[in-house]
UniProtKB/TrEMBL annotation:
<protein>
    <submittedName>
        <fullName>Phosphotransferase family protein</fullName>
    </submittedName>
</protein>
<dbReference type="Pfam" id="PF01636">
    <property type="entry name" value="APH"/>
</dbReference>
<dbReference type="InterPro" id="IPR011009">
    <property type="entry name" value="Kinase-like_dom_sf"/>
</dbReference>
<dbReference type="InterPro" id="IPR052898">
    <property type="entry name" value="ACAD10-like"/>
</dbReference>
<dbReference type="InterPro" id="IPR041726">
    <property type="entry name" value="ACAD10_11_N"/>
</dbReference>
<dbReference type="InterPro" id="IPR002575">
    <property type="entry name" value="Aminoglycoside_PTrfase"/>
</dbReference>
<feature type="domain" description="Aminoglycoside phosphotransferase">
    <location>
        <begin position="36"/>
        <end position="257"/>
    </location>
</feature>
Length: 343
């Protein structure tokens, strides 16, 4: 991780941030602020800010081109605030700023939770196969716990529109792709048409995370899940979209945003074992899983193309963006194959 910087960072101006945070949390800041960019993200920007005594995490949208409805800071803040006190571990939320004039974009401030966002097999291997299996199992169980939360019971009854969720997802990601095209992608049109024609009956609705994977979790002592992070795409809808996206991350042979090779660590279950554990613990029907996998491939392809667009425009911060565009066409092909295999 880079060292803390006494000055401003791209996307974060410390003086106006301090003024806002001191109004929102009087007495919280005790000294001069320093900040560092937290590496690893390919979408929203995440910073750690400290006064030398306390530390906080600040989240804001990426610089430059931002897709419509994406990178919603108020959405992330709302769902984490609502989930506090449930069985789903989330950081405490401290403040939300929806005024883009403060640091250049809306942002929110949350607790810094101690834990490791495991991404690579090399990071997991020293833990041993038994502990890796335990972590992976808890990853699945936490997803089941999330999908078992009653949205109305925690004030999220109006957080989304579950009816017609899958059809809207297909339309939404096509619109997002149309806004970020950098080249001809005929397989995108083919996959989109197949998804439109193959909509299944939806699974009973739940809170959907939208980007659930191991490195969006912080793993604490003893392999417990200390926090679930990155809620920017959370909504109410069909929870099997979360499971399918997790499975696509696990099965990938080519890079996708944020993906590592953690699933190759000894002890990590297969995608089939993960799906079976989810089905057993949730009681949900996975007979149409091929559609959900195809939709997840389409979604990741669109996200990758959006990141590739920002990279070409010089609007990304950090390293690792130059290879993201190479993931798009393999993802589209995998999505087509998932639907044809199910047919």
């Amino acid at each position: 991780m880079a060292a803390f910087d006494d000055g401003d960072l791209p996307g974060l101006r410390l003086a106006p941030f301090r003024a806002f945070f001191e109004r929102a949390r009087p007495g919280a800041v005790a000294g001069p602020l320093r900040a560092q960019l937290v590496p690893g993200g390919r979408s929203n920007l995440t910073y750690e800010v400290t006064d030398g005594r306390s530390s906080w995490i600040v989240r804001r949208p990426p610089l430059g081109h931002v897709l419509a409805t994406a990178h919603d800071m108020a959405r992330e803040h709302r769902v984490m605030t609502a989930l506090a006190g449930t069985g789903v571990p989330v950081p405490a939320t401290y403040a939300l700023c929806e005024d883009p004039d403060v640091i250049g974009a809306p942002f929110y401030v949350m607790e810094k939770v101690e834990g490791v966002p495991y991404r690579n097999a090399a990071e997991l291997r020293p833990l041993g196969a038994e502990q890796v299996a335990r972590i992976a199992g808890r990853m699945v169980d936490t997803l089941v716990d999330l999908h078992g939360v009653d949205p109305a019971g925690i004030g999220l009854a109006g957080f989304g529109r579950p009816e017609g969720f899958l059809a809207r997802q297909v339309r939404r990601w096509k619109r997002q792709l149309d806004a970020s095209y950098t080249r001809d992608l005929p397989e995108a049109d083919e996959l989109h048409a197949l998804l439109e024609a193959g909509l299944p009956a939806e699974s009973p609705p739940a809170i959907v995370h939208g980007d659930y994977r191991l490195d969006n979790l912080l793993v604490g002592d003893g392999g417990r899940i200390a926090a679930v992070l990155d809620w920017e795409m959370a909504t109410l809808g069909d929870p099997l979209t979360d499971l399918a996206l997790l499975l696509v991350y696990m099965r990938r042979r080519t890079p996708v945003p944020g993906e590592g090779d953690a699933m190759r660590a000894p002890g990590f279950p297969s995608a089939e074992e993960v799906a079976a554990r989810y089905a057993e613990r949730s009681g949900r029907d996975l007979s149409a899983l091929g559609f959900y996998v195809a939709l997840a491939c389409f979604k990741l392809a669109v996200i990758s193309e959006g990141i590739h667009y920002r990279f070409l425009q010089g609007q990304t911060v950090g390293k690792g963006f130059e290879s993201v565009g190479a993931a798009v066409e393999p993802l589209l092909r995998d999505g087509i194959a998932a639907l044809k295999d199910q047919a």
